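Q: My labmate handed me this sequence with no annotations at all. I'd like to see what the chain might look like in three dimensions before we decide whether it's worth expressing. Could you predict it?
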Amino acid sequence: LEDTVAAMLGEESALAVGAVVRAFRAVSPQRLARVHAHFRRWCAQLADADEWGQLELVRLLAAYARTQFARPSERPLDADHALLLRAVRPLLHSRNRAVVVGAAAAVFHLAGPAQLADVARPLVRVMRSSREAAPVALATILPVARRRPDALHAHVRSFFVAAADAPRVRRLKLQVLAALAAPETAAALVPEVAAYALSAQPDVAAGAARVLLRCAQRVRASAVDCFQSLLLLAGDTRAPVSAAAMRAVRVLLLDGTLRDARGALALYDVLCFVARLLNRCAGDEARAHVLALVGEFAESRFGRQHAADVLRAGVRGFCDEGALAKMQVLELSTRLCLRRPEAESGAESETVLEALRRLHAHVFTLARYDVSFEVRDRARSLRALCPLPGYDDVLAEASTQLRPLAAELLGAAPTLAAMKVLDGDDGDEPEFALGSLSLTVGHAVRGYQALPDWPAQPPQDVDRGPAVVAAPGPQPIAVAGISGRAHSAGYTTPRSVADDDDDDLDAFLDSADALPALFAPPASFVPPAPRTAVLFEQGELLSDSSTESSGSSESSGSSDLESESESDTDGAGSESDEAEETTALVGPEPEKPRPAGSEDAEGSPFVGTAIEDTSKYWQ
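A: Here is what I predict for the chain of 619 residues:
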């Protein structure tokens, strides 16, 4: 079967090549070496194939190019590589949405970032064409926006969320808006997203929090406004919304975005506001972010004065917390117990330190018998770093040596939280190939074929068939004169760019007197013989068959003809339908002389009349 399909690859018809390529991809998709001899011919046939064949050809040629050419960013494009990109680029303007998405995917996977600007407008057109095509188009636009955001800055308003959008479309649009956050789009983007934060739909408000985070990080002029909106959004009673807002607040406080911003709030005031949210935060994740912030800033002024109170509130409701919040309570207790003695303020007396040790022992005892495996494992690991006083006397001596290591391990947590805040939403490379069903549904489906990786050393001196030259199209008529000057190359120079010479115009105007001679017939022209057309009128049709036949129908017909003849002779009565049609076509019949030799015998069924001689019009 593979040999049969390989023999079919030489099909010359552009209308049949799509079926051949589909059969080849189904039978032997990995044997791309058989494409060598047909590569250039298929590139030339892309524009002539039908829409289904164009899609199959683009997919096969994209997989072939990923195994034969070097990465575009590493070295200049190969001649055949550039040929393929030139052949694919016109397909971006196809009327078929699948062909547009397939061509955009090929450009994304084969071209460099500089050429991604060509796919922006076609993909936006596909997204806005129908509601069914919007999720597929947005899934393709998102990797383009992350790799080349400036190509979509002019279309940022096309990704604003509408009330009639489906949940998946809303989520993808918000991810695209987060990727397009930049100083060039901040004027239109920030007010729009701030309105999304007040939406009644939880997914829209949570997505708005992520977009506000990106705007604060990339547009320093709007960082304070975005941060204040996130603080207000953190107190939302909906768990997904408060979790997304608190996660964004935590990142902005850790990465130093607000450190140099004008009008930034004091860290102490911000932490006090965040700590008060612990009593009204909805959701396990949001409460975990609050406790994590308090522990990460335990060495600050707020930590020295109020961290113990926050720990007491967490221990009091430990059994009712979720798994994430329980693990953060354990880390907060460990941080406070590992605090350096010289860092202790005078306000903390021995009574406060003793209360901290008792809270530490109590919460770790609760975690030891917790129903969650993760909480019990985290408690055992932290207990090894910070032994309980009076319970782990064996580890008390080793705890002195482990104290610096424990402080270093816990101190690395803010950096990891800042790096993984969006759970990989900022990855430049998509998990699946663009335009595939797996990318649309979010998981690998049956039959999915991943694109091969670029070769470390591309093959050299590969014969990819003869160079195919497109057939020359119709040449324009080269007319000199006022429209321009004719050239031997087959095109005409417009008058606007021709030399300033009025000879052509003067010659044209002087030739007006010669127009009669131009249209006069030659001397050898012999006019044709005059033609005579004869019109026949119906008279009394009396034939032998009509005379012999009898019946009501024939008698009525003959009576009609007799009445018609009498009406024509006397000029009285109405004309028949046939006479009306003849009069409408040729007008009223003039009296014309009868041609010589004509007979007008009585009983003759036809009477001939001649039309006027037209030979005088040729003289």
